[in-house]
Amino acid sequence: MAKRAVITGASSGIGEAAVRRFRANGWDVLGVARRTDRLQALAAETGAEVLTADVTSEQDVARIAARVEALGGAHVLVNNAGGAFGLASVEESSVEDWRRMYEVNVISLKLVISAMLPILRRSIAPSAGLRVEDAASIVNITSVAAYTPYEQGGGYNAAKFAARAVGGVLRLELSGEPIRVIEVAPGMVQTEFSLVRFEGDAARAAAVYDGVHELTADDIAAEIVHACELPPHVDLDLIVVKPVAQSTQYKIHRGPLQVRED
What is the chain's mean pLDDT, rounded? Predict the structure, then answer.
C-alpha cells in the first residue's frame, strides 16, 4: 500500500504545513479539520484527501476511522489538533476555557488514538526485516508549555502536561510493537494560535512575537516528516523546537541577536 499520513488540525498552521510536506515527499495524506473551505482549498492545491470533522466528537472520529479504512489504511497519525483559550490566572480564568482546552488537547488524543491504532496495526505488513513502510508512527504535537509552567497559562499548561503524559503512557503500552510514539513540542511558532487564544485580537496576538524571529509552521512540519521517515528502529521520541531567541517559556530575547564581544 502507499504510505499514508492522517493529520488532524489540517486547515491551518502546523497541520496545514505538515500536509504540504508529506505530499511533497510522495505520501498520500488525509487532512482532517473543522473548516471545510480551507480543507477544500488545500486539497485542490496539494492533491490531499480531506475530511471535515471535529476530533472531540466520538461520532466524527468514527467517521475519520471509516474514511481511513476506505482509503486503505495509514502508517502515520499526526495528532495536531489543539489550542489555548484565554490567558488569565488560575484564580480568575474561566472554567469553561479549561474544559475546552482539556477536550481539544487531551480527550481528542484518546478518541483518535483509540480509533486509529487498530488501523495502524493492520497497515503494517509483517516481515522479517522491517522497512520504513513497515513501521507506524503516532506523532503528538504538544508544546514547550507541557514542560514549563508559566503565569496565566495554568489551563493550557495542565492540558499539555496531560497530553504529554498520554504519549508517555502510550509508548509504554506499545512496547514490543513496531509503532513509534513521537512527541513534538514547539515553542513560539507564527500560526493562528495566539489569535485564537485572544479571541481574534490581532494586535494582541502580534505582540506575542514582537521583536522575535519566531518559528514558522513549516519549520515544525519539517521535523514531523523527518521523524516519520527515519528507519523503523529509530524513534525520536521527543523533539523540542524553539526559536534561538526563546531560552525558555518566560526568557525571550526581543530584538536582534548579537555576538557578545570580549
Answer: 92
Beta strands in 153-217 (DSSP E): 179-186, 189-190, 215-216
Annotated active-site residue 156? The verdict is yes
Q: Does the pLDDT value for residue 142 go beyond 90?
A: yes
Is the pLDDT score of 58 beyond 60?
Answer: yes
Residue 124, pLDDT above cutoff 80: yes
- The whole-model pTM stands at 0.92
Dihedral, CA atoms, 9, 15, 16, 21, nearest 10 degrees? -150
User: What residue segments make up the domains of the chain, in order of their start?
Assistant: 4-249
**The three grid cell numbers given for residue 232, joined into one nine-digit string:** 523503523
Q: Angle of helix 36-46 relative to helix 13-24, nearest 10 degrees?
A: 20
Burial track 115-126 (b if 16+ CB lie within 10 A, e otherwise)? bbbebbeebbee
How far, CA to CA in Å, does 213 sit from each of 210, 221, 251?
A: 9, 17, 14
Please name the fold of domain 4-249: Rossmann fold (3.40.50)
Output the CA–CA distances (angstroms, integers) from residue 34 to 10, 56, 57, 64, 229, in the order listed: 9, 11, 11, 12, 28
Going by DSSP bridges, is the β-strand pair 179-186/189-190 parallel, antiparallel, or unpaired?
A: unpaired
C-alpha cell at 255: 530584538
Which contiguous run of DSSP H or E holds residue 140?
A: strand 136-141
- The reported pLDDT for the residue numbered 1 is 61
Task: For residue range 156-173, list pLDDT tens digits in order.
Answer: 999 999 999 999 999 999
Alpha-carbon gap, residue 54 to 49, rounded angstroms:
16
Instruction: Give phi and psi for 115, each to the nearest 5.
Output: -75, -35
**CB neighbour list of residue 78: distance below 8 Å, 6 or more residues apart:** 5, 6, 7, 8, 15, 18, 139, 141, 224
Q: Tell me which of 102, 156, 209, 250 is the catalytic residue.
A: 156
